[in-house]
Amino acid sequence: MSLKVSNSSENNPMLPVSDPGRTHDDGDKLFKGSAMTKRGAYAAVSYMSCAVLLVMFNKAALSSYNFPSANVITLLQMVCSCCFLYVLRRWRIISFSAGEKSLISDNSTKFVPLNTLKHTLPLSGAYLLYMLVTMESVRGVNVPMYTTLRRTTVVFTMIVEFLLVQQRYSSSVIFSVGLIVFGALIAGVRDFSFDAYGYSVVFLANFTTAIYLATISRIGKTSGLNSFGLMWCNGVVCGPFLLVWTFIRGDLKMTLNFPYLFSPGFIVVLLFSCILAFFLNYCIFLNTTLNSAVTQTICGNLKDLFTIGLGWVIFGGLPFDFWNIIGQLLGFTGSGLYAYYKLMGK
Predict the structure, then answer these.
(1) Could you tell me if 157 and 297 are in contact, meaning their C-beta atoms sit under 8 angstroms apart?
(2) Backbone angles phi, psi at 167, to 5 degrees
(3) What's the confidence (pLDDT) of residue 84?
(4) What is the pTM of this model?
């Protein structure tokens, strides 16, 4: 995809952004009768690819290198994200507002109006909580069981969406979600590395994820910002709070004393973690606004097949037995059914 700036007034920003106000005709559909658009399908696949790789690199930093602070990794990811967005916006490769032309002249450093920034505060708060809890949840549970427990996020998401916007779902969707949860319970019943604290943090991560996705779905369509603009607001608001938090907790001091801080391998892991976090956040916004919060959660379940396989091979930690395999298959079957119902518009 070319990033060359064009003078045509009909061109959209060079990188794809969410467009909450756009209506889709049949030509935009993935295929005739589908409830998902082509852009929505691309966003879903991109999210799954980035998510698998990011979990691997985060797990490598926290477990393989025993890095002491997940919060510092989150802070680095946020700082890198803001730097990427600033440079891309200054070069006019992207815009922050939905429908804004890429050639708009803006020589100020204030990319988002103050009133718009205030409007996105609930989203920023949900994002900060989501990031902190999710990063901590990776540490306490092995990768296969982490992905298994995270699969129950869809239930939390459906509950939050019902409470916020009275969203209701068809019996087909409810059945597929029930199959996912049942599979997760079957897979987890024989986890010999049970850790009460680790499990509790993962379920808390599920809850914060549900709130975050539901908030994206609401604010993302009313703020007038596209995916990049929402990411910028999150970074500007949450960055200072996270910096103060890591200082108070002593995480910055622990980081400076970390023996592998300047190890080439560890630096490469951190670099890829930050780059992938940027693309993952973008894909989350894009997928949630183009599709839905529940679809975003189901995409997380579908990518777990690759995450579990890679996590088991690279990091180990879970003795796969008959019931675990059955549970995993039930969960993937439920995710596949949901994807089918979404594509067919049921």
Answers:
(1) yes
(2) -70, 130
(3) 92
(4) 0.69
